[in-house]
Input
Amino acid sequence: MSVFVHKESRVIIQGFTGQHATFHAEEAMQNGTTVVGGVTPGKGGQTHLDLPVFDTVEQAVAETGADVSGIFVPPPFAADAIMEALEAGIGVIVVIADGIPVQDMVRVKRYAAGRDAVIIGPNTPGIITPGGCKVGIMPSHIYTPGRIGVVSRSGTLNYEAVQQMSALGMGQSTSVGIGGDPVNGTDFVTVLQAFEDDPETDAVIMIGEIGGQQEVEAAVVGFVAGVSAPPGRRMGHAGAIISGESDTATAKMDRMEDLGVHVVRNPALIGETANRVFS
Amino acid sequence: MNIHEYQAKELLKNYGVPVPDGRVAHNVDNAVAVAEGLGGDRWIVKAQIHAGGRGKGGGVKLASSLDDVRSLTDQMIGSHLVTPQTGKNGRLVQRVLIEQACDIQQEYYLGMVIDRATQRITVIASASGGMDIEEVARTSPEKVIREAVDPAVGLMGFQCRKIAAKIGLTGKQIGEAAKLMQALYRAFREKDALLAEINPLAIVNGGSLLAVDAKMNFDGNALYRRPQITELRDFDEEDPKEVEATGHGLNYIALDGNVGCIVNGAGLAMATMDAISFHGGKPANFLDVGGGASPEKVGNAFRIVLQDPNVKIILVNIFAGINRCDWIAEGLVQAMRDLEINVPIVVRLAGTNVELGGPILAESGFPFIMADNLDDAATKVMETLEAQS
Output
């Protein structure tokens, strides 16, 4: 099955006609993703990449039966776009934008409460089920179909781990980036539970970073970035900040280890450790 | 983005939060004039720097005469104030806040944050005022009151009264505290704050509440819609290298090691620092060149990293997704031509167009030390450093 997105997913892109959206929609289609159209307000009725463009998500869903949306609109408009997708009944919403005001996400989370939808991100590379469906900006070619789930905050560190895995012949069921923001749509626990319930996922690699407490709650093989990060400084990601002793990478990895997680202390050995543990 | 205490108090006053009478002064004469204008016979002189713990460093003093105001201001302005949060070099004091002194009968803590666990704006209050709230939470967690705000309705009156009662306020102070909390919440919401702290919130002579200290931090991602807050930014409080980096679209944070790092992506940048540390080295900086790194951006990254005299070697670690390795490689070669680079450079490239990037570096004639993967890169950094010493 994989988690959240798969071969049967019908994807629309919000902010479809923008440069990045166009590039990544095309790349995703070349790698097997079923993109059925997109939304750019004011351009409804036009055609883009041979697909229909709509003014609203509601129209797009009615015409195409879309159930997944990739949001590529700029940060100031992202909260509105997410709520529009929620209201239109989209089940999986992937938010790429980096730089959404935190209080906007607080309101989005409230709006999403009680609705049966998964929001991935913001500030995420996206989600990919190799060979089935990709909604995001990651390079498809480093991923290979397989039975290991990957969940991370960061984009490039996710690529790093996946390449280490692929080099050792370990493929991925689905790879999910939950994003680097302090208030995010879906947390590690929700993704880990989804992997747990997925018969096509045998094991999970989790890659966290400093800040917050989500990482320690569960995983199989885990790494937390930021052992060498100073306290009180935001390390690139809005959410990557040590605000207390329990936020540090070492504290999180220690607690994961106590819970029976195989913790990797050297980020260069994520793939190797996973290979040893899983085989 | 942080602001000074005097700026936070000005802002909160406009929202109806009671603060002491006071004004900022940039020199000694100015300070004395402010004190005279305020009247009374005792004043507080407070050094204005962004770091906390000023009292412990001697940055908050009581003046019992105008002469005291003069001499204390003279001592503070131009000095480097060292507090537990500034590091050993301290921060240059360029202005002081002069306030009328007040008699404090009782101190409380009141704060607001965006709590990562509830993912909501959360009020934090405690009867243990004037102390570090994290310390209180560690030693006596039962003394820390938390109340999350439902964004659909905002901070309700009943929640404020509940908090006030829990920290031990009684009588008319409950209503006063509720009004103050709602004023603070409005400021927090309307200005896109990430943190607001009134510590201490005091009961002064006559029994009324007063925000004796105030600290606010704002969401950098929301500044586009908060021009008033943007104007409060004080570049003197920031590392000039970090300010320059931000101007070039780079994310740079200075650290105290000797291995310069140029990486794409925040997570990989942290992991690269960790890999160096794991092999016994010390990173000189965090630097994320971001997506879409042009050759110019790579050149700027080198310029900024090399401004740090401690840098003995540079590790470039790029995993290109949106980026392209050939562009990065061109940027590297260009930087070698344009800049005087006297330190060895270890390069690890992976991802999009890696097959084009390697040859560009090899054919350039510059002595790049090529690494196959992250572990190899960290190992080569350490080997090269050892060979140098």
User: Anything to note?
Assistant: The CA atoms of residues 203 and 278 of chain A lie 7 Å apart.
